[in-house]
# Entry
Amino acid sequence: MESGIFFSDYAKDMALRRTHAEKIRLVLAILFAVSAPWLASKYQLTLLNQIGIAAIGAIGLNILVGFTGQISLGQGAFMAVGAYTSGLLAKNMGLPFWAAVPIASFVTAGVGAFFGIPSLRLKGLYLAIATLAAQQIIQWVITHWDYVTGGVDALVIPAPTLFGQRVNGEFKFYWVILFCLVLTIIFTVNLFRSKVGRAFIAIRDQDIAAEVMGVNLFQYKLLAFASSSFFVGLAGALTAHYRTIISWERFTIETSILYLAMIIIGGLGSVSGSVYGAAFMVLLPALLNNFGRAMHGTIPALDQIIPFLQQGMFGIVIILFLILEPEGLVKIWRNIKDYFRLWPFSY
# Structure
């Protein structure tokens, strides 16, 4: 009776999916992703699109915080850089959607690397304050650079097109988001099987020991900020073209805290945990809103307290996870898998 995972060669040990159960779950996930837009309602498809964009941004933030140990509170600002850069390229320069998005992502990577320079001397709370300064600086530039960004007014951009077809609808844009999410997951999973990814993890675990082993802290910390910001900018650019209306209010400090909550609840240092956390934090407000509408006839005043209930639940959920399961949803899922894999010797 099998009570563990054993391999006889390195190729099997290094495989992304090492057991039959993992391969079956991958096939089921692919079937769900492909069939979901055909079976889901418009409202459900909207939630799936929001989860997909949030998952890309959460994975990007997890590269920096979860895998490299560099705390960041500038997620909203870097998303704003990606959104406004892509939107302005599409509106003012007439670049197609498929060209504006990657350019905006690389621009965001450069901005992220610039604001990551203090990470060589700062760590912990001090680095968090430095990234918070980046949030405030970028937000100030967006709201006061009227000639370029439009200031506090919303920036309306043309609907995205791909191969001559408009893809701004929920159904069509779902495939764009899914394509970007799959590429993000594949890249990130393989990143931490490489020399660069192992250097990131070494910096997280003990940066002084990593430097003694030959890891260039300045180079790899900047690379971590750039890699993280690239995917954060991608999430911002996708948000811009998905909504076709860009407003600075969508990229405030609350957005940064929301994404930080996603990776805490999902699991720090886990790609799948980023997806779980993004899904959880997108679905929680939706479930509360649906509950409020369902109870409107019984408790009419409930609609008025739903926004406050959402904020309260937001804080309570974070506290409960930090106390009861600091490793997040990914650890809970891992425990469930281990129980069935090792049964009847699951103890």
User: Anything to note?
Assistant: The chain has 15 helices and four strands. Residues 52 and 179 are 10 Å apart (CA to CA). The chain has a mean pLDDT of 86.
